[in-house]
Amino acid sequence: MAHRRRFDADPRKLLLAGPDFRLDAIDPRSTPGFGSGKAAGKAALGEGSRVLSELQEKLFAESRHASEISVLLILQAMDTAGKGGIVRHVVGTVDPQGVQHHAFKAPTAAEQRHDFLWRIGKQLPGPGMIGVFDRSHYEDVLIHKVRGLSATSEIERRYGAITAFEADAVAAGTRVVKVMLHISKGEQKLRLAERLDRRDKFWKYAPQDIEERALWSEYQAAYETAIERTTTPDAPWYVVPADRKWYARLAVQQVLIGALEDMQLGWPPAHFDVKAEKQRLAAS
């Protein structure tokens, strides 16, 4: 298909976190598989939007005829890496009635009385939906590991609980796509500076961003461990270089398109006599 030819190979193969995965071996400014520049990238994103929109409509249409399948896109990243841009420029190009978006914040007191996955399970996408987790259950291993909020034994338990939880979701018909947007520390500094320089960006800035930035190395190590421990054939991790926003959006779009194409979606057949209905309509 035309939207694939712009890449040298299937982006999923290029971005997939394999068994020998190392986060520091990935250049955040690189554009794996895409040899053209920003203008070509934006054009390809526009082409892909039409493909993604049709696939999403097929997914939604199938659910109206008893299909139980859905897709869950999990977005994880350091601050400023562009999760919001992915939601707006990739997922935002499809029919909103077919999207369930949830941004997980710090758990409430009521949520803390349950296992950490309790609140996550309640937000899994329904049949025919594309679910988006803007941050997710991975915060409960990343932050807890870096900040020492849970014992090492509990964090180890959570890795296993996560893989079991995702395996159950896949078995129930949800295609799980996990994306880590990989931004460099230098690029994050530039984006934070922009937020402080522009009045329309103040709302995006939080003083604690600097505190989290001071733990950059610890977070990189935590991400590497979490990805290595929880990537599976049915719920793989894709690490997307994110210093170039246009590339990150295009790459995530293509990964999502690939997942939907693998589902071999189709338009549901008519459950009525089409010819007879045309005749009735003509006579009405």
Q: Would you write up a description of this structure?
A:
There is one protein chain. The protein is of the alpha/beta class and 284 residues long. It has 13 helices and 5 strands. Helix 3 (38-63) packs parallel to helix 12, helix 7 packs antiparallel against helix 8 and helix 7 (139-147) packs across helix 11 (216-230). The protein is globular. The mean pLDDT is 95.
Counted beta strands: 5
- What count of helical segments does DSSP give? 13
Task: Give, in order, the helices and strands.
Answer: HHHEHEHHEHHEHHHEHH
Using the alpha-carbon principal axes, give the shape: globular
How does the helix and strand content classify structurally? alpha/beta
Which regions have little confidence, pLDDT < 50, spanning 5+ residues? none
- Rg on CA atoms, Å: 20 Å
**Sheet with the most strands: spatial strand order:** 2-3-1-4-5
Provide the residue-averaged pLDDT: 95
Largest sheet descriptor: 5 strands, parallel
Strand residue content: 5-15%
N→C terminal distance: 42 Å
Percent helix: 40-55%
Core attributes:
284 residues, five-stranded parallel sheet, 11% strand, alpha/beta, 5 strands, globular, 13 helices
Q: Summarize this, please?
A:
With 284 residues, the protein is an alpha/beta fold.
Task: Tell me the layout of helices and strands.
Blueprint: H1 2-5, H2 11-15, H3 38-63, E1 70-77, H4 83-89, E2 99-103, H5 109-112, H6 118-121, E3 130-134, H7 139-147, H8 152-171, E4 174-182, H9 185-197, H10 208-213, H11 216-230, E5 237-241, H12 245-262, H13 274-283
Parallel strand pairs: 1-3, 1-4, 2-3, 4-5
